[in-house]
Amino acid sequence: MSISREEAASALSQIDQTTSRSLDMKSYRIVGPILMAWGVIWAVGYCGMGVLPPRRLGWMWLGLDVLGIGLALIIRRRYGGATSRAWRHAAATAAIIAFVFVTQHLFRASSPGPDLIYPGLVCGFAYVMIGLWRLHRLAWIGLAMFVASLAGLYLIPQGLNYWMAAVGGIGLFLGGLWLRKV
Question: What is the residue-wise DSSP string for 28-63?
Answer without folding.
Answer: HHHHHHHHHHHHHHHHHHHHHHHHS-HHHHHHHHHH
